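User: Show me a protein chain along with its predicted structure.
Assistant: Here is one chain, sequence first, then structure tokens.
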Amino acid sequence: MQFETWLVFLVACVGLSISPGPNGLLALTHGAMHGSRKASFTILGGAVGFVAVIALSMFGIGALIKSSVLWLTVLKWAGGLYLVWLGIQVWRSPAITIIVDRSALEVQGWSLFRQGLLSAVTNPKVLLFFSAFLSQFIDPQRSLAQQFFVIAATFAATEIITEYVLASAAHRIRPWLARIGRRFNRSCGGAFIAIGAALPLRG
């Protein structure tokens, strides 16, 4: 990939990362509930998931999914149902407190990593987006493996930085979040539920 092309791709990645999405919302929520250090597991899981989706898109699976109405429908419903389930879990979470309670202390990093990973890989819009988006930057005359490394590393880095900023900011405003209690959890949970319910219904 030429340097000028990479710069355009980097700008596009930054724009995509700062736009609202399930993984950014998840990082914000986990940053407020568990702190930025533990939310790093969520962020890393999401980054790994995005790299996997990029790999699938670049090596041809995206084209297969787009050509199959059945598989597209399955992915839409699977991703939507997972986000609805995740939203219900966030909705039912206890109110955020200034002093971290035992449940927040005992949460396992692997559990947060898994949530971030699944939030990324079960979103069919991500696969379809990358399938169309990445084709603009791939040079068929160059090594696909090398281009994959550059593209995946660039996107993962921008996602990790953006989501860590969100998680850190959420943790700093924790006293304010504690004052509004469960309303914050219900707002975030409701957003997840709305996104999950909308995914299968969009064309």
